[in-house]
Amino acid sequence: xxxxxxxxxxACGFSAATSAFLLTRGISFKLTNLEPTPEVRRDLERRxxxxxxxxxxxxxxGQLLMAPSxxxxxxxxxxxxxxxxxxxx
Length: 89
What we know:
Number of domains: 1
Largest sheet: 4 strands, mixed
Order of helices and strands: EHEHEEH
Strand order of the largest sheet: 2-1-3-4
Shape: elongated
Low-confidence stretches: none
CATH class: Alpha Beta
């Protein structure tokens, strides 16, 4: 399973939906609130090459995904779960 960090702001409904979706799929992740950490927000903006971050931002094994759709999250989570299963012998 990849290492996942969800960067969010509390008022963002899509951030809450993303976290809930990952929880229902049984995918563990870390949450980072961007409100008290403007330096983290600036670093994300720099790394993404944008002037303003749209939340949530997922960092998956070092790769950033800004505001992925729920359909994209489903595709990714299916892949993560498939890769996490033990190989059939």
